């Protein structure tokens, strides 16, 4: 028996026709950049230039321009790395997992989310390279054949696992994103002339729109979704192994994999929320990114926020229950030691604030949603900072206990990643369709608020 | 099936396969002499040719080597790559060490102790280790100077001789001169110029002690002390393990009374008892059993009180003295009296009255003839404050026409400023300073003398104990020894080497001892067989001393000027190794501080992080504030040796406290303190003071418990498993590393480590450890491979409940804490957490138990440093060499000459750490291999173990049952031996021995241990 849910949520508003969808979305790609875009892009490029100068200075001078010390060997660098990787998770989750679960509301946000994933992973990777003392030798971390005899990477090291996890994730994400882009690139190609036609035509790699193409497209999408789904879990699991497999109290924790994955989705959704809310306004896409979308995203934020909240509390319980002196101290120090404020910030931003979304009014309030997404990302940054720095700064031998104070290098190299991220995202938003036209069209018939009569007749 | 493979043979021999045939099968001619005559086979010719061709062309492809200069005519005794050792002597301002100098290709690069000296017994302090770097100081003068302009030696000699010849009073001013031959030179000079007089003073004067001995016994000397014979020893503001008179000598003796053994039979379970009464916390106080805090004005009163209490027991007439309320006095007196004949009281005071009382007390205790030997005095301090004062008055009065300086009194004398101003009145003033220091820059001429490693010389540190100094490098700059200059000016032949040799052969060497042998040994000790003098009868004026002491009035906050181990009196202030060596107590580098107790600081309204203005009698200095646990209330301590203005770029730090203690007693009353600014971070290498009750880190007990149970104070964690309790080592995920041949390790006795810090500088010199400067130390980025963790006890109870407030209380050190020093370096874990996490295998395990770093492979992720439970790994945050931001010795060609060519200078971006001196292990193994034997125990020493004066660090092969380390471990395994952080089962190669204090009652931590055992880990 065929079961159809009685009330289908409306995913596209204002009775958009197929042509309207194409027009609305291609308009940005084809037209002159808007004034808003130019302003935001200009700022992003300036930030990127400032950040790049600092990154180059960091490379030239050495990591001493950061605030690290003999006890705290990682701080903002790895915090930023984990934070960006976490943000990247939302893209994969939305494209792959929601695709497998046939969540149709994903269609209007998956393109931007995937692009965000790719840029976020690049930002994360930049911190992997940046945090090395000798980044020009980064290739040592790859298992490359060499002439140095038995010189090889250490497969015991979680950092090597990271290299594999991140590079796999990056390549699969790129592939997924690009495959999804092909029908839309073809649409643009078909509407374009001259040089643009050639460029988009090359990018569309000969898409004809035939039934066979569509069938293959669907198959590849499903296969890639199947491939990416375990990555959603594995990447952040492996990132969490950087800490979980160590001996440092506060790092050596078996709860980390699920806790990190939940946190990653949490921050990723918040970032998607931020980006979509901006794009929605700037590109006037209110009919495609609806309040329902925002509300759904907020629900996931509340869920994952609560999951990490439980993880925080579990850590404390286990520390007390373990009876290990160092573990107990690490957690009491986390909450009440010299860095207590970072712990308080994390708890408030990640666990307390998303509980507001239990109220539907708040959940559907665009301003609050935007603000809350920022708060969540601040909180998730602090989560990583808390885990890394408060565990390191007071570990086993009290003689080596220190404090961590960031310096201009830490801050500016972090700013660099924002400069890069937004510059890249704005370029994407200008030159590629921010919403997956083909997929939105596919849900138009079933989920449009009022499917236009004339289209209905033709269809 | 039938075998169709037929065999063919060349001859019957092959068929029979006899042994002779098989052996020669591949030789063309069966002739024996071919082998014997021609080891290289004819058939190898092409191979050798080919190899030669390939090797030559490969070598030609290599990158050109910069500045490697081959010997055109190789010196006879220099083998590139093989060090030469020379015996020599360090004698600066009365500080003395008999040393061995390691030279590589003609450069002195390392100093070790000379074990042939029965006086210093191979003990070498931090300043001596660092002195090799001062040799390569590029801020020294390149030649003689007249004013600010260069002058030739000939012209200088002419002008100086003309000046001297004009007549008038001539004064030669120096610190203690240990050299008998130098004194002979001065005598010759005085014969030529009868108006010349030699004035001696010491910046760390013991003039009061000498004067008191003159009054008490008619002998103006510093006697020999033997702390090794003392069962009860008392120090009254005398830092005899750190800075007082001859700490390296005393520390060795002291350590022998503190050494314990857990051996079932014949194990030593006795310790001396050590009381210390002091103002600021010193390493001597830190190592004592009972430490009491006194104000400097109370020194005399404490001595009198002790005297009276001892006299009351032993029978003697009491003397009048103000009552003092100082803890431990009664017990101290009781035990001193009980230990009569094996007791020793020393005081650091420069007040003869105090020293007279101490002499009377020692006399009462029968110390003379047992622990004190007046008949064989030491000459470490010969300064005479009265003569120096008279000299300054003469200069001010314009009565001196010529003055020759061998020291720097303008800086390091309390009336230095006055002298500096008055120097203009002296017609001819000459300084022998190596650099234009505070005094030299005010002199008309500077006749720079070379560093002692470029010089000939000798020393007589103790009656009948001689030692020789010989140059280990030819003169670096256009300098001339002071002795030669004086001889020249006296019109005598200036060849000091010949002069020295003739003086030795004529006047010193006897009994057929040869000059060459003495030079080879470095020491000549006819006095070693001298009998100790028996008791001396005290003839001092005790009542007079009591009256003088009664006249000492302390008031308000008192300032104590003390000497630090690193900087001393400041003559090596421009040595970056010493500036960066953390003070063993305060852990401050690169500056001196106002040390003050928490209570007094609160009363005054200052705190750590502030700067304060310290005013005494109208003179003011401004320094950062240090909250110092153990500092007597209402006192502040400020180190001398800082605040130099003409020392050089590394040395001009801190503030000069000499002018503030103008009474010559190194203290002053009525100190005014005013906060000037706040928000300052002291460059300390350790900022957390207490051990937070962590017994896996510091394990300690008291002697009475140890006697009952050799495992007293041990913390043995047990882990709960499904099969019951297990030791951490019994459960493991690791496969371990096979150690077939050697297993290098160390045993570190916490009871013997008194925190002198010699190991830190020795390691720095051996392993090319970079100097990073004050700002980087303040950012906690010092590079030292070995550090001296110093923990203060806390009064807070060790809370089982783990509350935030409990922890916060445990962070605060007690007002007068117990102190533990724990040398901490790479523990060379067999289950090393660092090794598993390195992504590129830059840190791996050797087959001999070493955790090795491959700098070339390191990409600098710092994961290993994060995962090190001991936090001993150091990261090169910057390029520390050839970098103007780090303008220390590694930034100039001359300074880089001190680098050890056997150790890589690390590039920026890599991790480094203690290698257990792998270069020494390798070279020791090679030497043994060449001689076809195994390395003998003691042959290979790490820099730290070799430099440890008390042998607190013992290095060796744990697989060699005859090695000292194996023997100690065999005895202590079921005794005092423990691994730090045993419960994480990293299986270090380093073992520590528990700290045992000779105190009554159960140590605080011990009580906790008992409680603990029922708590979390059992």
UniProtKB/TrEMBL annotation, chain A:
The keyword Ion transport does not apply. The keyword Membrane applies. Keywords: Cell membrane, Membrane, Transmembrane, Transmembrane helix. It is found in: Cell membrane. It is a multi-pass membrane protein. The chain crosses the membrane at residues 39-60, 80-101, 113-139, 159-181, 220-239, 259-279, 300-320, 340-359, 366-394, 414-435. InterPro entries: NrfD-like. Pfam families: NrfD. PANTHER family: POLYSULPHIDE REDUCTASE NRFD, PTHR43044. Belongs to the NrfD family. This is NrfD/PsrC family molybdoenzyme membrane anchor subunit. It comes from Emticicia soli. The lineage of its organism: Bacteria, Pseudomonadati, Bacteroidota, Cytophagia, Cytophagales.
TrEMBL record, chain B:
SUPFAM superfamilies: 4Fe-4S ferredoxins, ADC-like, Formate dehydrogenase/DMSO reductase, domains 1-3. InterPro entries: 4Fe4S_Fe-S-bd (IPR017896), Asp_de-COase-like_dom_sf (IPR009010), TAT_signal (IPR006311), TAT_var_transloc_signal_dom (IPR030948). PROSITE patterns: 4FE4S_FER_2, TAT. It holds the Pfam family Fer4_11. Residues 744-774, 817-848, 849-878 form the 4Fe-4S ferredoxin-type domain. NCBIfam families: MoCo_extend_TAT. This is TAT-variant-translocated molybdopterin oxidoreductase.
């Amino acid at each position: 028996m065929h079961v159809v849910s009685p009330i289908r949520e409306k995913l596209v508003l204002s009775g958009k026709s197929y042509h309207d969808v194409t027009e609305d979305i291609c308009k940005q790609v084809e037209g002159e950049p808007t004034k808003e875009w130019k302003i935001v892009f200009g700022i992003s490029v300036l930030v990127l230039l400032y950040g790049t100068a600092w990154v180059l200075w960091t490379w030239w001078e050495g990591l001493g321009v950061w605030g690290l010390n003999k006890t705290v060997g990682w701080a903002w660098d790895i915090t930023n790395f984990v934070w960006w990787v976490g943000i990247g998770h939302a893209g994969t989750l939305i494209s792959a997992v929601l695709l497998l679960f046939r969540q149709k509301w994903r269609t209007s946000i998956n393109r931007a989310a995937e692009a965000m994933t790719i840029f976020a992973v690049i930002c994360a990777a930049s911190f992997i390279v940046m945090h090395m003392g000798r980044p020009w030798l980064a290739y040592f971390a790859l298992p490359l054949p060499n002439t140095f005899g038995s010189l090889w990477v250490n497969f015991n090291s979680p950092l090597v696992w990271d290299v594999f996890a991140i590079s796999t994730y990056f390549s699969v994400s790129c592939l997924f994103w690009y495959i999804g882009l092909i029908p839309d690139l073809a649409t643009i190609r078909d509407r374009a002339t001259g040089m643009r036609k050639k460029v988009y035509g090359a990018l569309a790699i000969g898409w004809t729109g035939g039934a066979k193409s569509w069938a293959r497209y669907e198959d590849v999408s499903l296969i890639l979704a199947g491939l990416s789904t375990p990555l959603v879990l594995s990447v952040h699991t492996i990132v969490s192994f950087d800490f979980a497999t160590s001996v440092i109290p506060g790092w050596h924790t078996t709860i980390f994999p699920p806790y990190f994955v939940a946190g990653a989705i949490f921050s990723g959704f918040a970032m998607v929320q931020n980006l979509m809310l901006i794009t929605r306004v700037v590109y006037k896409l209110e009919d495609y990114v609806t309040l329902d979308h925002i509300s759904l995203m907020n629900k996931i934020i509340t869920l994952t926020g609560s999951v990490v909240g439980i993880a925080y509390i579990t850590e404390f319980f286990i520390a007390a229950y373990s009876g290990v002196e160092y573990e107990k101290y690490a957690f009491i120090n986390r909450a009440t030691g010299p860095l207590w404020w970072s712990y308080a910030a994390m708890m408030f931003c990640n666990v307390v604030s998303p509980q507001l979304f239990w109220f539907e009014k708040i959940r559907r309030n665009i301003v609050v949603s935007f603000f809350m997404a920022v708060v969540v990302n601040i909180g998730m940054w602090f989560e990583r900072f808390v885990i890394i720095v408060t565990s390191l700064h007071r570990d086993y031998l009290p003689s080596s206990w220190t404090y961590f104070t960031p310096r201009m290098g830490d801050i500016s190299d972090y700013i660099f990643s924002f400069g890069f991220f937004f510059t890249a995202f704005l370029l994407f938003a200008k030159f590629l369709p921010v919403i997956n036209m083909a997929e939105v069209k596919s849900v138009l018939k079933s989920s449009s608020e009022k499917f236009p009569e004339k289209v209905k007749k033709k269809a | 099936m039938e075998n169709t493979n037929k065999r063919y043979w060349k001859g019957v021999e092959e068929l029979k396969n006899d042994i002779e045939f098989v052996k020669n099968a591949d030789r063309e001619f069966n002739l024996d002499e071919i082998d014997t005559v021609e080891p290289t086979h004819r058939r190898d010719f092409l191979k050798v040719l080919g190899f030669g061709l390939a090797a030559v062309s490969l070598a030609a492809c290599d990158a050109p080597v910069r500045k490697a200069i081959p010997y055109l005519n190789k010196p006879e005794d220099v083998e590139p790559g093989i060090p030469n050792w020379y015996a020599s002597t360090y004698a600066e301002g009365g500080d003395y060490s008999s040393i061995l100098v390691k030279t590589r290709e003609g450069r002195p690069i390392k100093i070790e102790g000379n074990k042939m000296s029965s006086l210093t017994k191979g003990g070498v302090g931090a300043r001596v280790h660092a002195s090799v770097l001062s040799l390569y100081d590029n801020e020294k003068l390149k030649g003689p100077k007249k004013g600010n302009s260069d002058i030739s030696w000939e012209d200088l000699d002419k002008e100086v001789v003309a000046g001297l010849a004009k007549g008038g009073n001539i004064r030669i001013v120096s610190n203690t001169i240990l050299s008998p031959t130098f004194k002979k030179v001065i005598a010759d000079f005085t014969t030529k110029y009868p108006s010349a007089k030699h004035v001696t003073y010491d910046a760390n004067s013991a003039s009061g002690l000498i004067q008191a001995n003159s009054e008490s016994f008619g002998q103006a000397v510093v006697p020999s002390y033997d702390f090794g014979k003392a069962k009860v020893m008392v120090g009254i503001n005398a830092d005899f393990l750190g800075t007082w008179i001859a700490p390296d000598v005393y520390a060795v003796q002291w350590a022998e009374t503190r050494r314990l053994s857990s051996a079932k039979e014949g194990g030593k379970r006795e310790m001396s008892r050590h009381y210390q009464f002091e103002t600021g916390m010193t390493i001597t106080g830190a190592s004592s059993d009972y430490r009491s805090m006194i104000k400097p004005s109370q020194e005399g009163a404490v001595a009198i009180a002790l005297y009276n209490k001892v006299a009351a027991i032993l029978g003697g007439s009491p003397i009048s003295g103000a009552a003092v309320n100082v803890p431990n006095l009664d017990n101290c007196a009781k035990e001193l009296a009980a230990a009569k004949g094996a007791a020793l009281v020393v005081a650091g005071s420069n007040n003869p009255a105090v020293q007279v009382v101490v002499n009377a007390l020692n006399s009462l205790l029968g110390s003379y003839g047992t622990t004190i030997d007046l008949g064989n005095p030491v000459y470490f301090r010969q300064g005479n404050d009265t003569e120096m004062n008279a000299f300054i008055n003469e200069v001010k009065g314009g009565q001196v026409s010529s003055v020759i300086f061998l020291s720097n009194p303008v800086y390091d004398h309390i009336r230095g400023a006055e002298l500096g101003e008055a120097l203009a009145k002296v017609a001819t003033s000459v300084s022998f300073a190596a650099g234009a220091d505070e005094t030299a820059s005010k002199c008309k001429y500077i006749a720079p003398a070379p560093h002692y490693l470029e010089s000939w010389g000798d020393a007589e540190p103790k009656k009948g104990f001689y030692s020789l100094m010989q140059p280990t490098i030819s003169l670096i700059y256009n300098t001339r020894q002071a002795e030669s200059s004086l001889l020249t000016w006296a019109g005598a032949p200036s060849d000091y080497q010949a002069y020295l040799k003739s003086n030795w052969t004529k006047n010193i060497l006897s009994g057929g001892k040869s000059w060459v042998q003495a030079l080879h040994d470095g020491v000549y000790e006819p006095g070693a067989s001298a009998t100790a003098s028996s008791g001396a009868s005290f003839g001092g004026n005790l009542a007079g001393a009591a009256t003088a002491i009664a006249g000492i009035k302390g008031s308000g906050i008192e300032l104590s000027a003390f000497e630090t181990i690193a900087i001393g009196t400041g003559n090596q202030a421009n040595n970056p190794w010493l500036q960066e060596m953390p003070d063993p107590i305060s852990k401050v580098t690169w500056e001196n501080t106002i040390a003050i107790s928490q209570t007094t600081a609160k009363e005054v309204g200052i705190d750590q992080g502030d700067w304060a203005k310290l005013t005494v009698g109208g003179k003011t200095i401004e320094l950062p504030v240090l909250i110092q646990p153990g500092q007597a209330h209402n006192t502040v301590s400020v180190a001398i040796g800082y605040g130099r203005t003409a020392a050089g770029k590394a040395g001009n730090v801190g503030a000069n406290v000499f002018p503030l203690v103008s009474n010559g007693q190194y203290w002053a009353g009525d100190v005014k303190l005013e906060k000037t600014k706040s928000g300052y971070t002291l460059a300390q290498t350790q900022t957390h003071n207490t051990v937070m009750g962590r017994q896996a880190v510091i394990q300690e007990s008291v002697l009475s418990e140890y006697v009952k149970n050799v495992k007293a104070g041990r913390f043995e964690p047990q882990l709960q498993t499904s099969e019951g309790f297990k030791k951490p080592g019994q459960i493991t995920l690791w496969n371990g590393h096979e150690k077939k041949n050697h297993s290098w390790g160390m045993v570190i006795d916490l009871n013997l480590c008194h925190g002198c810090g010699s190991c830190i500088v020795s390691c720095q010199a051996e392993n090319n450890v970079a100097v990073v400067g004050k700002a980087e130390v303040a950012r906690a980025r010092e590079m030292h491979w070995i550090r001296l963790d110093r923990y203060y006890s806390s009064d807070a109870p060790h809370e089982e409940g783990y509350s935030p407030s409990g922890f916060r209380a445990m962070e605060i050190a007690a007002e007068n804490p117990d102190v533990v020093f724990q040398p901490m370096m790479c523990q060379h874990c067999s289950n090393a957490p660092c090794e598993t996490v390195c992504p590129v295998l830059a840190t791996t395990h050797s087959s001999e138990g070493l955790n090795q770093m491959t700098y070339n492979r390191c990409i600098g992720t710092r994961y290993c440093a994060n995962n090190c439970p001991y936090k001993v790994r150091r990261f090169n945050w910057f390029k520390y060499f050839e970098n103007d931001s780090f303008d220390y010795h590694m930034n100039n060609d001359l300074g880089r000459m001190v680098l050890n060519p056997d150790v890589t200078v690390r590039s920026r971006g890599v991790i480094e750490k203690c290698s257990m001196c792998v270069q020494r292990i390798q070279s020791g193994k090679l030497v043994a291999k060449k001689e076809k034997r195994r390395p003998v125990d003691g042959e290979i020493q790490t820099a730290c173990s070799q430099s440890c004066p008390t042998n607190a660090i013992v290095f060796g092969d744990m697989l060699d049952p005859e090695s000292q380390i194996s023997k100690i471990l065999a005895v202590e395994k079921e005794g005092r031996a423990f691994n730090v952080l045993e419960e994480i089962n990293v299986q270090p190669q380093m073992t520590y021995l528990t700290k045992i204090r000779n105190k009554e009652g159960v140590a605080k931590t011990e009580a906790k241990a008992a409680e603990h055992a029922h708590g979390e880990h059992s």
